[in-house]
From TrEMBL:
InterPro entries: Aldolase_TIM (IPR013785), Chorismate_II_sf (IPR036263), Class-I_DAHP_synthase (IPR052899), CM_dom_sf (IPR036979), CM_II_prokaryot (IPR002701), DAHP1/KDSA (IPR006218). The keyword Manganese does not apply. Gene3D superfamilies: Aldolase class I (3.20.20.70), Chorismate mutase (1.20.59.10). This is chorismate mutase. It comes from Robiginitalea biformata (strain ATCC BAA-864 / DSM 15991 / KCTC 12146 / HTCC2501). The keyword Transferase applies. Residues 259-286 form a coiled coil. GO terms for biological process: chorismate metabolic process. Keywords: Coiled coil, Transferase. SMART domains: CM_2 (SM00830). GO terms for molecular function: chorismate mutase activity; transferase activity. The lineage of its organism: Bacteria, Pseudomonadati, Bacteroidota, Flavobacteriia, Flavobacteriales.
């Protein structure tokens, strides 16, 4: 993307003393609900008040948003609290209505980002706008698709661009609603350091008790801001109740987060060190998750061997694995000694799992 250095200008011009904060309910439900939450957030660190007006759901029949009437409620939010407003758009009609009601920030959702046709339609509708436009990552971990959406908006002369990392769908059961796949966000950040990067811990977590930890990881990785779903009565929210926090809890989260600034050489050193350590933490968690998957497969192998009365140790197979991994390790800069120690430990744990299954 040419002139990418201009992408961060809109954020730098805000001269914020803290990361950008976008907060508000997952869905606008009633005028009273929208205004009540807004008034509770107006004297906090929140910079943009978000509310879902149109809610694309996976299956029909669920609450799909109040529609255009909710935009009038957002106008009242701005009039009564001074907060800038934000909502998701999924087609040209949404864009036209949002601009007509002077919404300040528009974002393209994960389900829309997967379709170049939808993204292009939105880009054409927004061409030349001075509104802030953010693009959520696609549902699946596809960095090229995500960047393709950014390029389409950038080609439409939209200068105030940024991206939102909201995690990725998976069939596997994890503690997250959407697995973070932090390495994709890190790669995007490395390739385009001038592209503002916002984290959405609500959609990654799916649970309000994980939001603080996800937010802290994002800040440790030098994300520029957070989008946190906030509701005055989360348990009774009409959508995504489990992942919303109260305004009071949002304030507490922002107070407890460790926010690092580059103010001098020592601070810059500490900031870079914390960022690198956060990247290591992400990879370490992935290693543990991968090893857990490997041992679950070992359990299945143990069950098969038990059925056929086959010995646990298969020397030929083990030697082939070891030889391949030594060569692969060398290509990645890992010493033979390290690879041997690591895979011997993994192999022993695998044997333990299989023996446990066979002897049970």
């Amino acid at each position: 993307m040419e002139n990418s250095t201009q992408l961060r200008k809109w954020l730098d011009d805000m001269d914020l003393p803290h990361p950008l904060v976008i907060a508000g309910p997952c869905s606008a439900e009633t005028e009273e609900q929208v205004l009540e939450i807004a008034h509770e957030l107006k004297d906090t660190d929140v910079n943009y008040y978000r509310a879902g007006i149109w809610k694309p759901r996976t299956r029909p029949g669920n609450f799909e948003g109040v529609g255009a009437i909710g935009l009038k409620w957002l106008q009242k939010v701005k009039e009564e609290t001074g907060l800038k407003t934000a909502t998701e758009v999924a087609n040209r009609a949404h864009v036209d209505l949002a601009l007509e009601h002077d919404v300040d920030l528009l974002w393209i959702g994960a389900r829309s980002t997967v379709s170049p046709f939808i993204v292009q339609e939105i880009a054409d509708a927004l061409e030349g706008t001075d509104k802030v436009v953010l693009i959520k990552n696609p549902v699946n971990p596809d960095l090229s698709l995500w960047l393709g959406a950014v390029e389409r908006l950038h080609s439409a002369n939209i200068g105030k661009l940024g991206v939102i990392h909201r995690g990725f769908s998976t069939y596997e059961k994890t503690k997250y609603r959407n697995i973070p796949e932090w390495q994709l966000a890190i790669e995007l950040q490395t390739r385009f350091p001038d592209l503002p990067l916002i984290n959405d811990p609500s959609h990654i977590s799916g649970r309000r008790d994980l939001i603080f930890d996800v937010s802290q990881t994002a800040l440790d990785l030098n994300f520029d801001g957070l989008m946190i779903e906030t509701h005055c009565d989360p348990d009774n929210a009409w959508s995504d109740a489990a992942q919303q926090v109260t305004p009071a809890r949002l304030v507490q989260i922002m107070n407890d987060l460790r926010i690092r600034k580059e103010t001098d050489e020592e601070a810059e050193y500490n900031n870079k060190l914390s960022n690198l350590r956060a990247q290591i933490d992400v990879i370490d968690n992935q290693l543990i998750e991968t090893l857990g998957k490997r041992m679950r497969i070992s359990d299945e192998i143990g069950a098969l061997k038990k059925q056929r009365n086959v010995a646990v140790l298969q020397t030929g197979r083990w030697n082939a694995i070891l030889g391949n991994m030594i060569l692969e390790g060398e290509s990645k800069g890992l010493s033979e000694e390290f690879v041997l120690r690591m895979f011997k430990a993994i192999h022993q744990e695998s044997i333990n799992h299989q023996e446990k299954v066979i002897n049970n």
